[in-house]
Amino acid sequence: MSTTQALQIHCKPLPGLMHFRGANMASILEKNDAADLQIFQYRKLSDDRFIANLGAEEIYFCVDAAESLELQANQYAFPRADATFELSGNWKALMSEVCIYDFRQSQPGDFLMVSIAGVSAWLLIPEADEPLILGCDPTFGHYFQEILMKQIEESPFL
Amino acid sequence: MMRRLSPQPLEWINRSQSVTFVFEGEEIKGFDGDVISSALWAQGHKVLGRSFKYHRRRGLLSFANHDINVMLQTADTPNVRGDVVQPEQGQTYKAVNTFGSLAQDKGALVEWISKFLPVGFYYKAFYSPKFLFPKWERLIREMAGLGTVDTSWGERRQPKRYRHCDVAVIGAGPSGMAAAIAAAKQGVDVCLIDENPYIGGSLDYQYANEEALEVTRDDLKTTIAEMDNIQVITSAFVAGFYGDNWLAVNSQQGLIKLSAQSVVVATGVFEQPAVFRNNDLPGVMNASAAQRLMARYAVAPCKEAVVLTANPEGYRAALDLIKNGVVVKAILDTGCGENSWSVPVKQAGIPVFENAAIIEAKGRKALQGVVYAVNGVQQSLDCDGLLMSVGWAPAGAPLYQAGSKFAYNAILEQLLPQELPQGVFACGRINGVFEIVDQIKDGQQAGMAAALAVQDKSVPDFTDYTATRAHSHSYPIWQHPKGKEFIDFDEDIQIKDLKGAIAQGFDNIELMKRFSTIGMGPSQGKHSNMNGIRLLAKLTGKSIDQTGSTTARPMFHPTEVSHLAGMRFRPERLTPMHAFHQQAKAKFMEAGVWLRPEYYATESSREASIAAEVAAVRNAVGLIDVSTLGKLEVFGRDSAELMDRLYTMRMSNMAVGASRYALMVDDSGVVIDDGVAVRYSDEHFYVTTTTSTSDSAYRMIQKKVIEWGLKVTVLNRTGQIGAMNLAGPNSRQLLSQLTDLDLSNEAFPYLAMRQAKVCGVDATFIRVGFVGELGYEIHVSAQDAEHVWQQIMLLGESFAIKPFGVEAQRQLRLEKGHIIVGQDTDGLTNPFEANMPWAVHFKKTYFLGKPSLVRLKTLQKRILVGFELLSAAADDMPLESNLIIDDGEMVGRVTSIGRSATLQKVIGLAMVELACSQVDSELTIKLSDGRMVSAKVVKTPFYDPQGLLQKPQESALGGAA
Amino acid sequence: MKFVTCPSLGRRALSEFTFGGRVEKETDQEAVSEREWAEYVFYHNGAPKTQQEWWYHRPTGIWFLFQRNTLTDSITQVDFANKGLTNDA
Q1: Taking CB atoms and an 8 Å cutoff, what residues of chain B touch A99?
Q2: Is B33 left (phi over 0), alpha (psi -120 to 50) or beta?
Q3: What distance in Å separates the CA atoms of residue B381 and residue A87, rounded to the nearest whole number?
Q4: C3-80 adopts what CATH topology?
Q5: Which residue of A has its CA nearest to C14?
Q6: Distance between CA atoms of residues B286 and B64, nearest Å
Q7: What pLDDT score does B146 carry?
Q8: How confident is the model at residue C89 (pLDDT cuts 50, 70, 90)?
Q9: d(CA B466, CA B150)
Q10: Which chain A residues are within 8 Å of B783, Cβ to Cβ?
Q11: What is the rounded (10 degree) CA torsion for C26, C28, C29, C30?
């Protein structure tokens, strides 16, 4: 059970993470059986692959590093070198100390963008008992990991 | 002399576990669950503290979590509150603010001169001569004070937690418990908060011995325990009530920041002391204090008691005393009359004196008797306890802070809340409801309404359960010719002090508070404001409502700084090459949120290290990490239009593969950002911003895209891209071995941009000249940046490469006369003043700030110039921001300065008035120590004025006009 | 802390937002008189009222428009500042 398991944070490299911007993003969702994704929802495709809908002209797409990308006109793909982590155990307890967001609002499958300990981050809200995958700008990664680990270590509640 | 009673039905102590601690050198034995005050009282102590100003002996007064009389000091904590804090096993406690000891306090001598210390003396007596004030202030601070802080104590932080719920109920007395249950039954999440370790509130101390209520109590508590959607938070108080029902809940384990959709305030009422001569003698206490002492801690308040009462609650307290074997010698009834509890009191044979008035309390170190009058006839009784039950004031801080008003109810003689803000509800005694069945009903309707409000359902009309008789005395103040009637025990304020304040014109409640300091002590008026208001109203002939009350600001109870501090969340950004910098002995500096190498400590000193870095760039090759630059991708149909609108120069006519200086001003024409723009394709630009503006520039540009309705996307890729600048005469040769790109002047001229692979990864190259040498800015994905940096450094060894830091770059660019936005410009500088008229293209029909610049061009008064120092003495070095003086007038300031190793001179930039900006004009710079040094205006760039080195053997192409 | 319920984002703390000024129509740069321009740049009437304001949600990078009463600080309407997430690049 995730609620009783000790909180742990691990680096979880996602080298295939891409940021797509531009026209006709729906076609990319469709191609990946994710046409029904609402805004700020993601779908796990396989292991580390996922696709997230950030709006009509924006998606996050974590692909296999080797996967070739076909872009249509006016579609742009930028690699994201985000610092990404896996948080197992009662991650909501940790979040309640570093994040003001009301997690009662979020559902499994939500792609949540929030401030955590002063840094903008994104979270893949998992099914109950699954670990949480989260990421932030790579240049904040060192701080982000350090502050979460310190909080896990020092907080009397975790 | 043990005052511990036989077990009480609801007591909080665990008699199987004792706790031993030291108080004023004496060993005290209490039980687990005791607070310090109850353990002391149980052991027979009556003098628990000394007063703030006169050092009078004090015992228990309110015993309601704001008892200022009992404040203690330990080796590592000041101001431990005796009525709240449980003693630690083995801890040593000492009363605060005593000289010598609690028993023999030399500070008590102050009382002998008290007639020379009238109200407001602090403001008046020591005001002149002014130079003596600091001496007086020190003396007063020594004599009057609370606990002491040892500055060698280490940092203490408590983690803060966030919590969200639908309904927060503040106070877990009968109405609060009922409210929580009613709300939870609607299916919403409820937090029930109480400052005590257990829920129950007045139901458990005022009605502890009412057998008829046992079922009600069990029902409430069992239901709360069984409902999953009620979260009980005990030993926690709402320190502050902020906008949108944001509650600062101070728990023993730190602050909980609780966001609730609706809030039920069931905080109840504070019992108010009666004001009469020597009402502060140990043994005189509020009736509810005595009830808490008995019900919670099983401690007898005294052996022989007299009860002064204006309400039925006083009779209830008398019954509790009788039940616990305390002799009740008399009830002094000041106007309550017959009620359901007076009957059994009389049946027990207790003398009840109606129409009574208190005259004074008697006793040397503690209460020994009372003098009172019945129908005007003076009488006296010996006793060691006097219980005061003369009325209540709302525990209204959360409601006041939420924005509600209070009005005086003349039937109850109590302030009641009016006009509750949306989503805020009140119930129970704060609402004027005093019958226990009514309190529960009032709680139910408030809890239900709070839940319905969350669910956006309409709220049914409220039933009024307000009591129909007074529970407070309209004026519980009995003046005595000899004085010493205390209104505010925190600050030793007596009737005469408030009268004095009013007589001197401080007859408004806010003025009276500040002049007399009533309500300004640690209990923040909880036991004193109501009596202060009643006195002021009486003396000024106004009603209570006309008199008003002071503002109840956070914090509700004293709050530890460690709770407010929380953990430290201070984001810090590191570039992808950070690990290399660390290995290369970088000394880091903060640049906004970034850590950047200021220099690499490779030589014996900072200066030598920087000089070596400068020399490497000028003579061989250097590499600097510029990943902190803001980096924006701009693409889409209208990208060229956007670039034209944002920047002062024309961007739409840039060729693909070109770069251009990008200067941005705001609406008022002030320079706010600069960078380099490149064009990847007709509809795709890439532009850098200064390190500190990357977020704000991106934000502003996005906003402008929306305002202007352009079809263009802007993406902030600052952290996703690593960037470095390879500069120096050897840079081309070095780079040519790492890329297939043709680096010849013809193929890749100055200010051009190319995209190609470097060290096997995709890169953007820009030929720039910021430091004045042949140079290439290289931008690669953040994942690849460290690899590329390492490869360049490795191969660069044979080219005498050195990494260089921010300080060397500042010197190098200064030698070129290049400005740094935010250092050489300030919040008023326009491009003309920054000496960059070439960067403003007025032929464009539109760009940000154009109308201002059109006007400013003709109004120029100052300009940025280069200067060199005429003196060579080392201690004549001006600092940035030193002023330039002409004929006693300020005519400018130094914006940049440095000792140029290349030129062997001190050079700088200064913003000066036009009149002294001509080349060779002499400038007089005032040093920080007041001395003057001379400099003269010179042409910039100081170094390589023709720019031959940054673009050897060719002319500019596609660059700045 | 104020909380704002935004389309697509739910109830968010105001601390996740950056204020971007009130919504104002920019004057025409070509036709503008000196006085009109000065008033546009420098003069702002601070009298309490309900006004439309720019608010930027940092974690998502979305600009919102809030209707806010500057006297009571109550936010009565929240909209995406653009056609939202649908302006084709």
Answers
A1: 162
A2: left
A3: 71
A4: Folate-binding fold (3.30.2270)
A5: A100
A6: 10
A7: 82
A8: very low
A9: 50
A10: 15, 79, 81, 138
A11: 180
Q: What gap in Å lies between CA B695 and CA C58, rounded to an integer?
A: 9
Give me the pLDDT at residue B126, please: 65
Q: Are the beta carbons of C89 and B713 separated by less than 8 Å?
A: yes
pLDDT, tens digit, for every residue of A96-142? 999 999 999 999 999 999 999 999 999 999 999 899 999 999 999 99
pLDDT lower than 70: segments of chain B: 1, 116, 121-128, 143-144, 953-961
Residue B283 near residue B46 (C-beta atoms within 8 A): yes
Question: Is B846 within 8 Å of C29 when comparing Cβ atoms?
Answer: yes
Two tokens at B164?
A: 């969200």
Indicate if ipTM > 0.90. yes
Nearest CA in chain C to A75: C89
Q: What is the pLDDT of residue B312?
A: 98
Helix (H) or strand (E) holding B273: none
- pLDDT of B5 reads 97
Pull the structure tokens for residue B403.
Answer: 């924005």
Chain B partners within 8 Å of C73 (Cβ): 243
pLDDT at B127: 64
Alpha helix positions (H), chain A: 25-31, 91-98, 141-154
Q: Say whether residue C16 is in contact with chain A using an 8 A CB cutoff.
A: yes
Contact B341, B312 (CB under 8 A): yes
Confidence class for position A4, pLDDT limits 50, 70, 90: low
What is the distance between the alpha carbons of residues B770 and B827, in angstroms, rounded to a whole number? 23
Mutate: best of C1, C57, C60, partner A, most A CBs <10 A: C60
The beta-carbon neighbor of A115 closest among C11, C16, C87 is: C16
What's the pLDDT score for residue C82? Answer: 72
- Tell me which of B160, B244, B646, B684 to substitute to probe the interface with C (most C C-beta atoms closer than 10 Å): B244
pLDDT at C79: 94
The closest alpha carbon to B469, from B339, B355, B353, belongs to: B339
Predicted pLDDT of residue C38: 93
Cβ–Cβ under 8 Å, residues B182 and B262: no
Contacts of B159 in chain A (CB under 8 A): 97, 151, 154-157
- The confidence score (pLDDT) of residue B144 equals 65
> Which residue carries 């609650």 as its tokens?
B313
Can you read off the two tokens belonging to residue B809?
A: 């770059």
d(CA B560, CA B239): 11
Residue A22: list chain C partners with CB under 8 A: 88-89
φ, ψ for residue A71, nearest 5 deg? -105, 140
Two structure tokens written together for B854: 């059109």
Q: Which pLDDT score, from 0 to 100, does residue B957 have? A: 35
Q: In angstroms, rounded to a whole number, what is the distance separating the alpha carbons of residues B685 and B412?
A: 74
- Across the interface, whether the CB atoms of B161 and A100 are under 8 A apart is answered no
CB pairs under 8 A between B and C: 56
Do B244 and C2 make contact, defined as CB atoms within 8 angstroms?
yes
- Alpha helices for B298-357 (secondary structure H): 312-323, 342-347
- Write the DSSP assignment of C2-58 as a string of letters: -EEEETTTEEEEGGGEEEEEE--PPPPTTT--HHHHHHHHH-------EEEEEEEET
Residue B239: both structure tokens together: 């320190």
- Residue C87 confidence (pLDDT) above 50: no
| List of long-range contacts for A4-7, beta carbons under 8 Å, 24+ apart | A4/A90, A5/A88, A5/A89, A5/A90, A6/A89, A7/A87, A7/A88, A7/A89, A7/A90, A7/A91, A7/A93, A7/A94, A7/A152, A7/A158
Count of all residues that appear for chain A in the document: 158
**Residue B208 corresponds to which tokens in the numbers above?**
């502890």
Query: Do B170 and B176 meet the contact criterion of CB atoms below 8 Å apart?
Result: yes
